[in-house]
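Quick one: structure for this chain?
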Amino acid sequence: MAILNVSLTDNSHQSLQDIITHSSVASLLPLACHFTATALTLTQESKASEPTELVVLGTLSIAQLQHILQKCQLTSVALTAINYRNNLHSYRFSVECNDLTNARNTLATLALAEKFEAALLQNAPKLAVPGVLVMDMDSTTIKIECIDEIAELAGVGEQVSAVTELAMQGELDFAQSLHQRVATLANAPESILENVARNIPLMEGLETLISALKQHNWRIAIASGGFTYFAEHLQNMLALDDVRANVLEISNGKLTGKVLGNVIDAQAKADCLNELQQKYHLLPEQTVAMGDGANDLVMMNAASLGVAFHAKPIVLKQADCAINQHGLDYLLHWLA
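Got it. Here's what it folds into:
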């Protein structure tokens, strides 16, 4: 028996949250979704859910949902949950998917072109179960690349930013590029670090995300190829559980152009994630890593859920899911 029958002729450009409201269907979930040329019909679902989920925001239109299902070749569609988080509804659909990698790549291309957020997930970490989130710092938790800002104040901005971009695209060895960039900062005054930290711009949604996760006893950390001066500043500001970053050598109030100790590279970021998961006795399936550059990929692959945030193409191609248009708090919708 049909629970809801939606005419595509009249309603295809209406949003999901306007047509399929939480109040009208929440007690009836799961509901099988059947598209025809003229209608979307929701019926009572009795069979077990598929292991793959399509997650979309409530602002998505019925037509866009149908387009995603067709292009990504997703079948056996059933609405399993409607969540309301950070003042926005999201819809979770159980789907059958024969080629997850290809479907994810197709979805990533569609999402970028049509400017919507969506994810194809398997066994997504659960918001209500304690977990760990490790994030990159530069261009992820904050809106800037700190080394580029330092370099600008030191008078070598253009030289350094070009190298930074190549490193984030994965076209340069990260450790080598870091030493190369830091060397250009020799004899710059330590005060420029304070100037950058004082005006450091937090990424949209960061504080909302941290607050929501902490309410559910998650651990949150930064693992960065940037510098401890800024990572520790953020740790104190946001009450983060841990930070890992590189140490700039300072002598007589000036940068020496050197980094002390081992470089926090891609593997070190992944090690941080694994160490925190074990330290806090968290389930491996409750680990999330988020970043934007090539040096985040090892960490993202080590996590149960790897999220590309406003990321480079090489990262988008390999991530489990992405946030392309909005703030960090949209991660809350990808969690089950």
